[in-house]
Design goal:
Largest sheet: 5 strands, parallel
CATH architecture: 3-Layer(aba) Sandwich
CATH class: Alpha Beta
Radius of gyration: 14 Å
Strand content: 5-15%
Number of strands: 5
Number of helices: 6
Shape: globular
Strand order of the largest sheet: 2-1-3-5-4
Distance between the termini: 31 Å
CATH superfamily: Sugar-phosphate isomerase, RpiB/LacA/LacB
Length: about 150
């Protein structure tokens, strides 16, 4: 699987470690920046990662900003993007299994490298169950994107 990765300046410190975890799990990492720790804006990276998924250049994405909250808010503005802010292992796999999340948002100011690695592996190893109740809910979200 190809995984698009983006981080603002606050997420930059953990981005390379995320890339290494993605590669160690047997996936391809698509690094979309930031490429240094200079001040930058998380919406730019949310857009880049979201577009990579929308355009089929990546199947999933990982976004890093200080708390992960801003990146999650920004990414979820894009049609077809379901970004989950996860700082626990259960949520990192459940967001894929039930909600078909395609972006994992993390906050390096909230978590450290060891937990990050667990979260990334849980997210990447998870698969959408496809159960009718989950599909029904995703259909409702798609309707919201079209009308709202």
């Amino acid at each position: 699987m190809r995984v698009a990765i983006g981080a603002d300046h606050a997420g930059f410190s953990l981005k390379e470690a995320v890339i290494q975890v993605v590669k160690a799990a047997g996936h391809e990492a698509l690094d979309l920046g930031a490429f240094d720790a200079q001040p930058s804006d998380y919406p730019d990276f949310a857009l880049a990662v979201g577009r990579a998924i929308q355009e089929g250049r990546a199947e999933r994405g990982i976004l890093l900003c200080g708390s992960g909250v801003g990146a999650s808010i920004a990414a979820n503005k894009l049609r077809g993007i379901r970004a989950g802010l996860c700082h626990d292992v259960y949520s990192a796999h459940q967001c894929v299994e039930h909600d078909d999340a395609n972006i994992l948002c993390l906050g390096p100011r909230v978590i450290g490298p060891a937990l990050m690695a667990e979260l990334v592996r849980a997210f990447l190893n998870a698969q959408f169950t496809g159960e009718a109740r989950h599909r029904r809910r995703l259909d409702k979200i798609a309707q919201m994107e079209m009308t709202g």
